[in-house]
Amino acid sequence: MRDITRRDIFKLGAVGAAVIATGKAFSSQALAGDIVEGGKDFSPKTGVERTMIPSSCWSCVTRDPMIGFVEDGRLVKLEGQPNSIRSRGKICAKGAAGINQLYDPDRILYPMKRVGKRGEGKWKRITWDEALTELTARLKKVRDDGHPEKFMFHYGRMKASSSKIVKAFLSAYGTGTVGNHTSICEGGKWTAQELTWGAHYDNWDFDNTKYVLNFGSGVLEAHTNHIPTSQRLVEAMVDRGVKMVTFDVRISNTAARSTEWVPIKPGTDGAVVLAMCREVMEAGLYDKAFFPFIKATDNPNASTDEKVAALKAHLAKYTPQWAEKISGVPAAKIKATALEFAQNKPACVISYRGAVAHYNGNDTERAVQMLGAITGNIDNPGGRCHGVGAKWKSPKGPKGPKAKKLKILDGFKGAAAYPTHHSNHQILKVIKDGKAGRPDIYMWYCYTPVYANGECQENIDILKDESLIPYTVAVNAYYDESTALADLILPNPSYLEWWDWEDMVSPTQVPEYYIRQPFVKPLGESRDFKDVVCDLSSRLGFPLGFNSAEEFVKKSCEMTPGIKAAGGFDFMKKQGVWHDPNAKPKFDMYKKKVKADALKKAGVIFDDATSTYWNWKKSGAKSEAEAKQKGYTKTKNAYKGYVGLKVGNDVFAGFKPDKVNKSGFFEFYSELLKIKNFPALPTYVPIPEHEKMGPNELVLTTYKVPVHIHARSANCKWLTEIYHDNPGMINTETAGRLGISDGDRIKVKSEVGEITTTANVTEAVVPGVIAISHHLGHWEYGRYASGKKAPMAGDDDPDLKLKWWDTYGVHPNWIIPNKLDPINGQQRWMDTVVTVKKA
Amino acid sequence: MSENVNVGRRQVLKGAGALAIGAAAGLVPAGKAFAARGNAPRWGFIVDLRRCTGCRSCTVACKAEYDVPLGAFRTAVYEEVQGKFPNAEKQFLPRLCNHCEGNQEDKIPPCVKNCPEYPKDRRVFNTADGKKIRYRGGATYKRPDGLILYDNDLCVGCGKCIEACPYGARTFNKRLIAGKDASKNGIAKCSLCQHRVDQGVAPACVNICPPKARIFGDLNDPGSEVSKLVKEFGLENKRNETTLLPAENTVPMLYYIDPKGSLTKLASAKKKFMGNEAWVDQIS
Predict the structure, then answer these.
(1) Where among A358, A386, A414 does a domain terminate?
(2) Do residues A377 and A341 both lie within one domain?
(3) B142 lies in a domain?
(4) Residue B252, in any domain of the structure
(5) Is B197 in contact with A253 (Cβ distance < 8 A)?
(6) Which residue of B has its CA nearest to A800?
(7) Residue A766 CA: distances (Å) to CA of A706, B4, B21, B127
């Protein structure tokens, strides 16, 4: 290295610190052909190599393994982990902008206590000891009074070791009033899977597929396993000529990149899928080999011919012509696509919220599962497979008392038949109602109840009301719309400053083990909440047996055999990722035979009605006699004792149930749904509100863009610079009918509220719809997100003076009611009927 | 390890016309020098429009690599909806500095040609096999491996290179002071991550691109992926279809694989950026 210019830093007018750069003096290897993709980075200013640390992302739930580079004690760059079998060295824009989460000038760096009225924005900085002393006293009182359930804990994202540690605390404390956010995400999709093939998460094997059919997934821009799957899907399309057909209401980036975009009316995907199933069956293109594992009638011993006949009879009414009238998709297109899909095996049918977040979403997902199953594209290379993630071993916390729970997690009593992932978007309503009780302490973590759910105004009103919820605690790094309504703020660091082990599903069906480790020490006095619960547990008298997240991760590395053999914690800190090089991809697991010994274990009985072996001792049954009398389907928690599925003379692993007493079959025919008076076979039910729409009403649909994370990234300057306004997309013809031109200010009104935005008149959306993205319209969350400085913010960011946007978009949730799918409790994001007028 | 070395910071008088490099200075004219460069790499960059998903990973990775200030982009993606419903399409067009070779006569791209601080110092580019290639530095200059670089120490912040670039690849860096005029800003532009490339690491945008729509390598190496793609798609022979604004005759070393003909269809591909108009990456 020579001749490096290191001149002083100058000031230039109103512009902040400036650095002189130089471009002339770097050593140059410049060797032909020896360019590596990554793994190293250098300062463009000094040429000095930056220090690499492996860790993992947390921007979205994909949680890609990644590496970061530190320069002068500051994290400056995030890249993909080159050794990851999942992400193969890649991350996305949101991942790369994670640095903005760490150095957000509006971050909360100290414990804060409310001093004005709730929501007034007046705060006092307090010490951690003061904060935890106060919180401990409140938690202790509730627990000592015999009502641990009155401590409600509500999380948005809490995965892997974070979940284990925090749930160890909650369980030792004794509260079961633990909410999540899944109903506003894709909980309904999971329930539908639990009703068909058992435990949720469908991995899409693009590496081996020949054809992809997509209903409402933004897999190339926003999927829950985005980077691992999107790169493989593009590779499949470009390098192997795989065709992909996307049904969506608008041209998402995924639709844009697909071989074909097929516009479809919102909430009608189920009609198209059922018509496709019909065409496949009628053309005789179904896969007979898979049928022994299918339940298609009430008879578990039905022959394949009987199942085929029953399906054909059920599907007879779902003609492509019928589906065309409902969906707007031409009948010929439906038929041709169905046949193409069935004839290109292996093929993969994928689906997500566009198809699922509707009144009829449960059966749309069941129909999608059915289309995959009748064509034999389930759990096979190239098809739709049960996800495979890492199975870590980890320390257990102390055994707590039997948890008590407020019945407020599933919406109003009876509102949903099987809310297996809860209806947490209705919690505040249920709390207001009060009949199921109310929490004394409401603490939320990595979650924003005000902004992330529908009906924002009602959320604010309820959360503000101290008579409804006496004490609110926010665990957050950022001053968002919910944190503004807290009584106590515990400053969490960003994920770039904490420990975890991780386990997200691998696209290759081989599990990958990986960790998250801090790039820098937590800024200010922020403390990882996982460390805080260790502290709280000790203060409350039930120490967890580990004192920090780091210790927990370290112990887990020693307890998990493969990791231990590879070199344990030290290995993981250095390498970041590990997978068993000898592991074979997990396909066709349902075909595995159950050993005879397993059937002879104490408590294992056979249930004729479901052809299922199960162990009644692991269920809620009190005796074998009771278990036999009630049967598998109606015994509480019978699924926990599931052993195997009898098909002919063999017993197979089958499709292991989770959360509900599904048999070991891949269930088209669901006894569980029949019991609750829903159609047993996947059935199209129109969305009631859409049936009675007036001529000037539109359906409001929402979406994500590639550069933002649901509710949690508008504070990232590099992302918000690219996307800070979200006009409503309206089809040209529809806009013309309503007298609206591109760029007009418009009022969008639903049954629960009205918002004002701008019209984006475009050819890229179906008529009859207004599409408004999530992410924006913040009224807190700091200067980059809303223009509003957080009360406790700093100014340590030279870009603050260069922020050039003063529009912050609009949040559609103000006008989306918190309704639910009557089967699974999913929030119906895409069903809202609105009127749109010029403002 | 070979090094790029400054051989002097002497002021060199410019001859008549921007391209003239004084023969008195003892250097062969630039064009000939480049032609005779021995085994220097010839860096090539390909954007495969079949793969781009418009995700903006490149945009953000670049922001992070250089801490690019708000308001400036060294790379950006354009997107446009074309056609009528239901046959409408959305297309993406990633852009970065084209690292132009310059026209056939002088082999100097317009940004370099219009830089009042070029040519300045004498430099040597050491090739992998030990050959020395002499070339001229300046506030904006061309390196023998084809990279168009800038040297802020020599920059007067006049903005003439910004105006000269028909692609809008350059803008002022509002957090950088021009080396020779503290009242002005220096510039921001893509350097193809010269500081990484010189260490054998791909540019930040290539490193991150999830669908591998950005491909970088040595066109002098017939085994490199860029060479193979250039051959497969005839990228060098069909410049009118594979490069931006071919009429400008800047001869970009950035090629697009573009089977849909986006470059001839997209308004953003045909647009000539003039004056101080800068790229802004926006999703509408």
Answers:
(1) A386
(2) yes
(3) yes
(4) yes
(5) no
(6) B70
(7) 21, 57, 60, 57
What is the total count of domains within chain B?
1
Which of the pair, A201 or B17, is modelled with greater confidence? A201
Q: What is the CATH number of the domain that holds B10?
A: 3.30.70.20
Judge if A744 and A649 occupy the same domain.
Answer: no
What is the C-alpha R_g of chain A? 27
Q: Are residues A227 and A351 in the same domain?
A: yes
**Run of H or E including A365:** helix A361-374
Contacts of B47 (CB under 8 A, 6+ apart): B94, B213, B214, B215, B254, B255, B256, B257
CA angle A506, A509, A514 (to 5 degrees): 35
Q: What is the domain extent for residue B95?
A: 4-270
Report pLDDT for B38. Answer: 56
| Span of A26-30, A171-175, B25-29, B196-200 with lowest mean pLDDT | B25-29
Is A336 a member of any domain? Answer: yes
**For B125-140, how does the pLDDT look when each residue is reduced to its tens digit (9 = 90+)?**
988 778 899 999 999 9
Chain centroid, CA A573 distance in Å? 27
Q: Tens digits of per-residue pLDDT, A503-517? A: 999 999 999 999 999
Model pLDDT for residues A439-480, shown as the tens digit of each residue: 999 999 999 999 999 999 999 999 999 999 999 999 999 999
Q: Which of A352, A386, A420 is the last residue of a domain?
A: A386
Q: Amino acid identity, residue A464? A: K
Mutation choice for A interface testing from B281, B283, B284 by most A CBs within 10 A: B283
Query: Quick check: is A440 in a domain?
Result: no
- When CB atoms are compared, the residue of B175, B183, B196 closest to A42 is B196
Neighbours of A402 (CB within 10 A): 7
Q: Cβ contacts (< 8 Å) between B70 and chain A: which residues?
A: 717, 721, 799, 802-804
DSSP-assigned beta bridge partners for residue B135 = B123
In angstroms, the CA A268 to CA A685 distance is 9
Assess whether pLDDT exceeds 70 at residue A19: no
Q: Do A703 and A639 share a structural domain?
A: no
**Closest residue by Cα to residue A755 from A776, A783, A738:** A776
- The answer to whether position A823 is within a domain reads yes
> Residues 6 or more apart from A155 whose CB is under 8 A from it?
A166, A178, A179, A180, A181, A444, A445, A446, A447
Which DSSP letter does residue A837 get? E
Vertex A267: Cα angle to A263 and A271 (nearest 5): 80
Q: What is the pTM of this model?
A: 0.94
The domain tally of chain A equals 3
Q: Are residues A655 and A790 in the same domain?
A: no
Of B50, B83, B207, the CB nearest to A763: B83
A233 shares its domain with A368:
yes
Does residue B62 lie within any of the structural domains?
yes
Chain B residues whose CB is inside 8 A of the A91 CB are 57, 208, 210
Total Cβ atoms within 10 A of residue A310: 18
Cα–Cα distance measured from residue A775 to residue A163, given in angstroms and rounded to the nearest whole number: 25
Q: Mark whether A259 and A357 lie in a shared domain.
A: yes
In a domain, A740, yes or no: yes
Tokens of A193: 């899977």
Query: Per the domain annotation, does B207 fall within a domain?
Result: yes
Residue A635: domain span: 589-675
Nearest to A573 by CA among A519, A503, A511: A519
Strand ranges for A601-652 from DSSP E: 604-607, 612-615, 642-647, 650-652
* A227 contacts: CB under 8 Å, gap ≥ 6: A62, A64, A80, A86, A87, A90, A91, A92, A95, B210
Which amino acid is it at A481? E
ipTM score of complex: 0.95
Mutate to test the interface with A, among B121, B177, B258 (most CBs of A within 10 A): B177
Q: Half-sphere exposure (CA, 13 Å, Cβ side) for B79?
A: 22
User: A701-724: per-residue pLDDT in tens?
Assistant: 999 999 999 999 999 999 999 999
Same domain as A745, residue A611: no
